[in-house]
Amino acid sequence: MASTIIGNGYMEGFAKGTIYRGKLKSVCFPGLNCYSCPGAYTSCPIGSLQSVAAGLKHQVSLYVIGFLMLVGTIGGRLVCGWLCPFGFFQELLYKIPSKKFKMPKILNKVKYFFLVVFVLLLPAFFTNEVGIGLPYFCKYICPAGTLEAGIPLTIKNAALRGAIGIMYYWKLMLLTVTIIFSILISRPFCRAVCPLGAIYSLFNSVSFYRMSVDGTKCTKCNVCNKNCPVDIKIYENANSPECVRCGKCVDRCPTKAIKSGFISEKKGRLNHEKILDASCGADNSH
Question: What is the pLDDT of residues 43-66, one digit of tens each?
Fold first, then answer.
């Protein structure tokens, strides 16, 4: 919640229905936070990637790619669990009392389709007569932009209200669908759609911030899985691409087998060696 407030603290924008255009706008926010949100001081990395790719020369933004690699290398999807405003929004919605459902795991792969097709390929190759593309994901899909920018701006800006067309209602429908699914399913947008989550997921297995499971303590009781917002069994893959590093499994583990933090590979190897030594000792006793 703190990152949402800090990242969207430009109160004048909400009051006047305008967008902050100061120097901080050239900096990317690590989570999915719309550039056009009246309160946003910074830019969305997904929007920035599309804008550069859609430009006349179809360049690749080395700054944005480097920024995403840096954030991903440090924490992987830690951003998804702790810093992303739209992830926080979904968490709140899931707390609403209702019947809950599990999302089919095959849908976890769909976010990579949105990343490759709508963020990278379409803006670069589907262009207008002068060779400029569109930010396809932001324009046609992203519900975060509708919630954070579309609705607040049209409420305060009469000129924008007069320009409302079918695209606005399309995005409003997508937001409504996302809200409904977020009440019934934990973090559906993060898990099935978000291209930023898709990028950070590639770093989960190599990031400095890691999850660790002590095999000598873990009883595979599945308490971790029952409390996991993205429905993973952390003892099967402690640094799964789907893990948002929220820490709920750490807090709920009855044997305190799960740890999180900047865990060194050396420490991980030592724990693994202890498990192997214990197994060999058990075998030799027979």
Answer: 999 999 888 877 766 677 889 999
19: which strand partners?
none
Distance in angstroms (rounded) separating the CA atoms of residues 72 and 79: 8
The set of residues, in sequence order, having a beta carbon less than 8 Å from that of 119 and lying 6+ positions away, is 46, 49, 50, 53, 136, 137, 195
Q: How many CA atoms lie within 13 A of 47 on its CB side?
A: 24
Tally of residues, the chain = 286
Report pLDDT digits (tens) over 64-101: 999 999 999 999 999 999 999 999 999 999 999 999 99
What is the distance between the alpha carbons of residues 279 and 143, in angstroms, rounded to a whole number? 50
Q: How many CA atoms lie within 13 A of 24 on its CB side?
A: 13
Neighbouring C-beta atoms of residue 34, cutoff 10 Å: 27
DSSP state of 43: B
Report the alpha-carbon distance of residue 42 to residue 33 in Å, rounded: 8
Q: For 177, list phi and psi in degrees, rounded to 5.
A: -60, -40
Is-contact 40 34, C-beta < 8 A? Answer: yes
In eight-state DSSP terms, residue 25 is G
Contact 213, 234 (CB under 8 A): yes
Residue entry with tokens 């409003």 = 172
Per-residue confidence (pLDDT) for residue 278, from 0 to 100: 46
Please measure the distance between the N-terminal and C-terminal CA atoms of the chain and give it in whole angstroms. Answer: 55
Two structure tokens written together for 1: 């919640």
Residues whose CB is less than 8 angstroms from the CB of residue 140 and which lie 6 or more positions away in sequence, other chains included: 118, 167, 170, 171
Q: 3-state DSSP call for residue 93? A: helix
